[in-house]
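User: Show me an example of a complex going from sequences to structure tokens.

Assistant: Sure. Here are the input components:
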Amino acid sequence: MTVNLKVPLKKTILNVPGFRFLTFGAKIKLKNIKNDIVIVELNKNSKTVAVFTKNKFCAAPVLLAKHNLTLNDPQLFVINSGNANAGTGQKGIEDAREINRELGKYFSLDPNLILPFSTGVILQNLPLGRIKDSFKNNLANIKYSSNWIDAAKSIMTTDTVPKAVSKKFNLGKNEITCTGIAKGSGMIHPNMATMLGFIFLDAKISKTLLKDLVKYVVDRSFNLISVDGDTSTNDAFVISTSNLAQNSVINKKDKMYTRLRNNVLEIAKDLAEKIVRDGEGATKFVEIEVRNAKDLNESKIIGKAIANSPLVKTAFFASDPNLGRILSAIGNAPISDLDVSVIDLHLNKNIVVKNGMLSKRYSEDKAIQAMKSKEFKLSIDLKRGKEVATILTTDLSYEYVKINAEYRT
Amino acid sequence: MTVNLKVPLKKTILNVPGFRFLTFGAKIKLKNIKNDIVIVELNKNSKTVAVFTKNKFCAAPVLLAKHNLTLNDPQLFVINSGNANAGTGQKGIEDAREINRELGKYFSLDPNLILPFSTGVILQNLPLGRIKDSFKNNLANIKYSSNWIDAAKSIMTTDTVPKAVSKKFNLGKNEITCTGIAKGSGMIHPNMATMLGFIFLDAKISKTLLKDLVKYVVDRSFNLISVDGDTSTNDAFVISTSNLAQNSVINKKDKMYTRLRNNVLEIAKDLAEKIVRDGEGATKFVEIEVRNAKDLNESKIIGKAIANSPLVKTAFFASDPNLGRILSAIGNAPISDLDVSVIDLHLNKNIVVKNGMLSKRYSEDKAIQAMKSKEFKLSIDLKRGKEVATILTTDLSYEYVKINAEYRT
């Protein structure tokens, strides 16, 4: 099930100068017939910045990728689905290193210039033999692909639709090309889902500002969906630029930087939204806006307290305006000095709660009508500051239980 | 669905000297035909201590009960199901006061000596008219009940089995009688479920030690299940003693106190366990033991991180030993200095994870066999201290979604 989400048209997804890639199958899950490996080659001048999960059981590829990023800008990404190489201890790290060494031979690269990314089942070792065989079959004579949708497909696990977005925009007179792909599976609990997001572009920008860009963008996109970018064992969000565009290097926070940032953010938000729309078992797409908070973090915490409540989510699924569950979720958010007696709640444009209690103008009929739609918006006014954040989430359906109960089988 | 839980036999549930009660129906939910009001009369010398939800959207009856407890020991409880009187603002408080005033007339009591308890739908006003009518019909000529199972039934919402436990024990040569009733509905998210627990006994004990007893008992019973006592809008746990037993007053932490505490804890643990076994949609009963933690709180946090993960719970439902999800849940628990590379995990007596990775002695067949059972135990060894806590929880099934999607209809 998806909520208003389609496979992108091939012609809309652009190749970015300086990046080449190919995909192939390694039967990482033995029964899999789809491609499960993507290799992305980056040009020599490219720069890469990434943010990773904060989960303490973080996966071997995360540890290795983090380490390699401290050395030099990477020249190659290897991304696999089907197996997370997490909970695999020292053996997992050795396996990831072994894959890098092997790839280094085919691409004549120092293995330390390769970043591994894995998602899939936890607590299983990678099938090294099958992976090496797939390298032999596909890398002895490399045929690059030009269809990024294939790459987006190959990194999917329980996703049902490949997620890719492209954009061209100008910095001054110079054209910039930007393409992002992402995958995200689980969606109900922000610290469980496994999410990968990659954005490739060609704009010239200093490493310092690229770091600033990644942080700014992820906080306002992937970190605002209920598949939270910062806590699974394998989550990663990566921006790489080939530096091949003709713009003069962006090295201060000027208009050009802002323009670039806004364009990249747009791509990231679009990808993040697609992850929610393809959320496991999703039948509804719900925006939760938390307004007039003291700070951004407070609005996020409250938005996620609502988005992650199973009782709220099952009410979404049933199109049941059992909106008291939302108040209870707000009351549970760890904001110690919250005054709930001033809070307003709107469902689309209709008022539900005024100053902490049911509004006299509340209409159950209108509420049911709004919630029967595939998409609706909740807006919570905290009346204590000026910040706003909008969390994107879905409902909790029978299908969610089914998908996750049957995932490994 | 329940997991190995039966209606208690009437003869096993004892009347406690000093407490009288009756139950009747007020059609608080219009369609309800079951009794939905319980009134408990406490003798003049009784003492009562209670702990309530920490939810900031806490309900009107919670605010009033807390207030009245600061004045004098209560003489009457009025407990209703069907409506939580939460998210009802000042009107909700006035309604609760009005009910107390009305009851005060029938029982010739100061309304401040009455404690109200409500659970049920949030954001709806109590049907005052129907409640007052029910008082007129049932309190003009009071017929007390002697069957506590009826009381346990009347406070149920989505519970399927009434929960009551009794015990007689001696303090020295003096016999003490103790009876508890409880209700608990949701179960998946500790800060959403609505739980009530009442324990009545006749032991003589000082108010100071009764306060100590409540805290000790709730922390080791209701606060260790995934229906957490401290965060819904209406949760309450209450111990009342009539002081009618013949023991000399317990006023220091001596052997007698310890003996009393252990007996009351046993009742409370039994009630809490019953709430889990009757958890919404439950098909499995799972114990999660977290051993060798630095402190009790740390083991609770980790146990609940596992118990509240939808991905873990759906794997329980599927009898699928996708045990990596447990590691991921541990890695997400907010314990900043946790060393995951030393952690062991057992499923019943079989080792799964040794030092943070899959044990060589792990047997998938044995794991599946264990998880196919209706009850099993996970044991996590943190190897960093000496404390242990055991969280009780269930799986997440289709039925859970169904119950919560259809709750109001």
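The lines above are the inputs; the final block is the predicted structure for all two components together. The CA atoms of residues 169 and 175 of chain B lie 6 Å apart.
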